[in-house]
What we know:
heterodimer; A: alpha/beta; Fumarate Reductase Iron-sulfur Protein, Chain B, domain 2; Rossmann fold; 3 domains; four-stranded parallel beta sheet; three-stranded parallel beta sheet; 7 strands; 46% helix; 7% strand; B: alpha/beta; FAD/NAD(P)-binding domain; five-stranded parallel beta sheet; binds flavin-adenine dinucleotide; binds iron/sulfur cluster
Amino acid sequence: MKTTSTxxxxxxxxxxxxxxxxxxxxxxxxxxIARVGGALSxxxxxxxxxxxxREDIITNNALFACLTCGLCSxxxxxxxxxxxxxxxxxxxxxxxxxxPECPHGGALQSMMRMMAKGKTKQDRLSWLTKDLKVQHKKGxxxxxxxxxxxxDAFFPDFNITTLDATRAAIRVLNRLGVTPVVSxxxxxxxxxxxxxxxxxxxxxxxxxxxxxVESSGAKTLVISCAECLRTWNIDYQPFFETSxxxxxxxxxxxxxxxxxxxxxxxxxxxxxxxxxxxxxxHLGIFDPPRAILEALPDITLAEMPRSGKNSxxxxxxTWSNCDRYAKHIQVDRLRExxxxxxxxxxxxxxxxxxxxxxxxxxxxxxxxxxxxxxxxATLVADALAD
Amino acid sequence: xxxxxIAEAPAGESTRDGIFVCGSAVGPQIIPDCVAQAxxxxxxxxxxxxxxxxxxxxxxxxxxxxxxxxxxGILVCHCGINIAGVLDIDDLVQYATxxxxxxxxAGSTFACSTTGQDELVELIREHNLNRLVIAACTPRTxxxxxxxxxxxxxxxxxxxxxxxxRDQCSWVHTGQPVxxxxxxxxxxxxxxxRARQLEPLFEGEVPMMHSALVIGGGxxxxxxxxxxxxxxxxxxxxxxxxxxxxRLAKPHLKYLYxxxxxxxxxxxxxxxxxxxxxxxxxxxTDVESITGYVGNFEANLTGETEELLQVGAIIxxxxxxxxxxxxxxxxxxxxNVITSQELETMLVEDDKNVEIAGSRPRSASFVxxxxxxxPEHFPGCSRYCCPTAIKQxxxxxxxxxxxxxxxxxIRTISTGAEEMYREARGLGVLFIRIPExxxxxxxxxxxxxxxxxxxDLLGRHLEVPTDLVVLSVGMQPKQxxxxxxxxxxxxxxxxxxxxxxxxxxxxxxxTPVEGVLLAGTAQGPKDIVDTVAQAxxAAAKASIFLAHDxxxxxxxxxxxxxxKCRGCGTCAEICEFHAxxxxxxEPGTFVARINASLCKGCGTCTSWCPSGAIxxxxxxxxxxxxxxxxxxxxETSK
Lengths: 386, 638
Ligand SMILES: Cc1cc2nc3c(=O)[nH]c(=O)nc-3n(C[C@H](O)[C@H](O)[C@H](O)COP(=O)(O)OP(=O)(O)OC[C@H]3O[C@@H](n4cnc5c(N)ncnc54)[C@H](O)[C@@H]3O)c2cc1C
Ligand code: SF4
Ligand code: SF4
Ligand code: SF4
Ligand code: SF4
Ligand code: SF4
């Protein structure tokens, strides 16, 4: 095996503070994949990165097994930013021709790459209903839809409508007097391609999207999808030519405007909340969703034992690893959600819904893990007083 | 010799023991019938031979070393003028030489001929090849030939890639040689790309059960069971009714064309042979389910006998249903409108007198093609009903009745039927031809009084008074058996709804499921002569399986990488062949495993698996992606 240490690896390891690792093993002890028996040891990966064995690190399955959920880093006493390490190593791997075994035969990645090339005409907005007020080019608030319309079409057998959340978000914005820009020219944010290592296509998407939002003149960009939000907030920053708009999660925007929202009493519901890894640990947005649930009449939040910073992610992992261990994590998580006695599992990322819905299709477990799911925005929209 | 000067040999037997006749020497017939008959004859001939068990006598060959960097050889076949008449073979050879990892390329006049095979072996040896691309015809018929040759010299047969430049280039694009040439180059480029990714695979082996199950005790089942049992194979014949014989059993048929021998006599003779053969017969017994694969089927028998039966091969001889005319032609309304089957049953009771509601009809009309040759019910021809109507017409005519037969075409395909037709006309039976798409009208008040139609030959409307109307009903797929066995055995069903043979010429009694064979009307309407021939053919083909001591398992099947499987069950749900099943490997964790002997390697599960956990061996994603990539890259640099 070749053992050339390249400056690239050293640079990557350096940026992720791999050098600070003192081999305590907390990360591996924490890692949800390792806990269910998967062969993933973040500690070993950190050490390998320090040693700089490129081929070893890249061809090692552990690189793509990681969910990039960030749980390990949150426990690391030395402040190693493990997700950063993985993100950049995957780019190296991609460069060397190593790609993850994409679930669904890579069809979703193909769709993203088609959007990156930009030659295909999208019919992106046909889900807009008449009651929703939007504009298509310029405005103060840009509402970023993400790819929910594609997901609903791609997973018809999951019986999920992630678009409901998109519509609900616009309904709430309208109620607050905002007519957001919803653009027919939006393209995939590129989050998954970036995390699969395909930087080139990610950049094509980033440039297009940043230009689109800049040209709308929006001062605020409101986003529902947790992954899109992470991408805009962190990964798109270098692509802005003018000063970026204020980028907010829909729950943050709603929280800021809670005073202007009037709610009607609903039937009583106990819900539990799934922190999406991108929204929670990646961006630190733990409180706004909870504040909103609190504000809704008749909704009681029953937290799962592992919540907030300690939350376990949906294990969907950027469409790069969907295996026995991911399923195990999902099943455990759904059991945990059910154990709270909640009627609904509320989340604020469409991907959580997709991956959990897939797990719930298990032919053997049925009601042991089945729990209806809702996006937080739909709860808010449904509670709006007439 | 028969009166026509053709060998008189129904179902292959001649008048001398040990001499058999088949094909058009018996009478004019089409290829599928010839092939079925040839197999039947072979089965009969086998009975005279001893020691027909197949033993492995090949010397073990030393396997060639195929490891290391791909060393690809290409043979481009002329297929006489089939390919070379349109494509420039030299150009293709030259083009192929420049492709990556190709170390040798050559043309061949007929790659599949003995000379061609020798050239192939020579090419492999001379250049120390470890991959082979054969640009020729279709792998469906020819891959086995090349694989066998390669196996003989120890070259792993799964390292061959066939590129079909005949069917897909020279044949379909005969008029566009330039484009055809370009397409052939592209296909070869893709073939080479896949060949580079091929991996050697090895066939597994499991023991073969030497016994057989015949389902259905009609004439087909009886014949098949007898033929197999006589050869010494343990046979179980299950019949769901209380007696053997199917349609021939009392009270169904009286005399049988073409010889007009009583059905009871024919059946008795057949049953005697069956008894002597030692086949085990289970009456009032049905088959509830079947699992397994060739050599190792397990059938769950229910009814009078309940047991789990293990067999190596299965013959489906469940027969056919008859079309029910319901309201058509006044069938449900008039008591004197009956089906040909009902007439036959009346003849069984009394073949001198026919009585309808206490009175003897003086005239009778036959309506042909009822429920046959009708796109709404069964588009095909039922084959047995023309001769049957003629047979019945002759009997009634002899009772003194005036007979009219309303037909669209008279099809006297079977031996002796045309002679019967001539006889009927000689006896004064009237034949009236009605135009395609037209139907006769049966009218009357409380019983049918006349048949009205447009006479195609006279070109005018006719009304024929009648005392009796006989509807010559066609055959229909046997239900629920056809759907049931299609479901549990995955035997294909054709557009006509009957079980479908593997290939009309190449496999007229075989099904796509190895070890499952078809006999009689279960496969499509036919008369007894054809049924019996086909049943013997099925027995012969079954004995080919049963004579082996082991079954080799196709290694080009799918496999689950258990680490990646999320136990969603999609593969188990989607597989037509019930090959994958979920197993609990630790409490609450399920993974799929594929039973390699049930899997056909079709790849359906592979493409549905959400997590990419399934690998279709010999058609891996890598191999397919390599082909797609090669399709879109035109440079040929090494
Ligand atoms: C009115 C009429 C007249 C005919 N006249 C002639 C003639 O003169 N000459 C001629 O050559 N042909 C004639 N035929 C055609 C002839 O009857 C058929 O070709 C022949 O009987 C077909 O035999 P078979 O074994 O395929 O089917 P069948 O005789 O139908 O036998 C099938 C058997 O399988 C059994 N079975 C079905 N399902 C199961 C199951 N699940 N488990 C166990 N057993 C099962 C059935 O009970 C039946 O016994 C005539 C047909 C009809 C309808
Ligand atoms: S990011 Fe999550 S999945 Fe990846 S190593 Fe850390 S804890 Fe494990
Ligand atoms: S938790 Fe941090 S310090 Fe400890 S082994 Fe993991 S990366 Fe190193
Ligand atoms: S055999 Fe004669 S009656 Fe029967 S379907 Fe064919 S053409 Fe019609
Ligand atoms: S490859 Fe086809 S036959 Fe084999 S398990 Fe998959 S679906 Fe079934
Ligand atoms: S479809 Fe794939 S993931 Fe689902 S059970 Fe089958 S092998 Fe496992």
